[in-house]
Amino acid sequence: MRRRNVDTMVLSALLALALLIPGAEALCAQDGPVFVYVVRHAERADDGLAPDRMLDDPPLSEAGRARARQLAELLRGVDLTGVHSTDYERTRSTAQPLSAAHGLELEIYDAGDIGALAERLRASPGTHVVVGHSNTGPALVEALGAEPGSPIDALEYDRVYVVVVLPGGATGSAVFRYGSPYRGTP
Predict the structure, then answer these.
(1) Distance (Å, rounded) from C-alpha 57 to C-alpha 121?
(2) Residue 33: how many CB atoms within 10 A of its CB?
(3) What is the pTM of this model?
(4) SS3 call for 65
(5) Lowest mean pLDDT segment, chosen from 17-21, 38-42, 74-78, 107-111
(6) Contacts 24+ apart (CB under 8 A), 95-99
(7) Is 176:74 a contact under the CB 8 Å cutoff?
């Protein structure tokens, strides 16, 4: 099955589940739901180096650039409202192919104020992609009212959260994987 079809099925299933929440039908008639894809930046060029040799703001590796292109392809058919990134080379580079493919300006958010980003997203019906980090991604999922699950491992880059926020605040979420699979810590 093609990844884009999996993406469409995930969104459809989430919306269907969200509509089972009592009162959700009336809420959806007032305003549209907010869909948020939350991803971690792709592979860093300094992955595998000793901590004292890691860069402050590393670029993406070739595998990371390939994953960024895969993300853009995965979401090619999705009508995006916004693409959001922290102000780091690796996050901007992960989001850039996606924002370019959709003709959207990349919106930079403050990684230190996830609550403000969550509030902005809740107030912006449509579909958003947020590129962040191993700590900011789960924090955003939680700030939106969904369960982030287990922490993201150091070399885990394939996790995508899909969070649906209905008008009134009811949420649903799912996780899927894309690109080269993460196989756990060595």
Answers:
(1) 26
(2) 22
(3) 0.84
(4) helix
(5) 17-21
(6) 95/68, 95/129, 95/131, 96/68, 97/68, 97/69, 97/71, 97/72, 98/68, 98/71, 98/72, 98/129
(7) no
Q: Write out the two tokens for 69.
A: 């292109």
DSSP 3-state of 119 = helix
**Cβ 127 vs Cβ 78: under 8 Å:** yes
Sole residue written with tokens 């394939």: 158
**Full set of structural domains in the chain with CATH:** 3-177 (3.40.50.1240)
Q: What is the pLDDT of residues 96-130, one digit of tens each?
A: 999 999 999 999 999 999 999 999 999 999 999 99
Residues in the chain: 186
pLDDT band (50, 70, 90) for residue 185: low
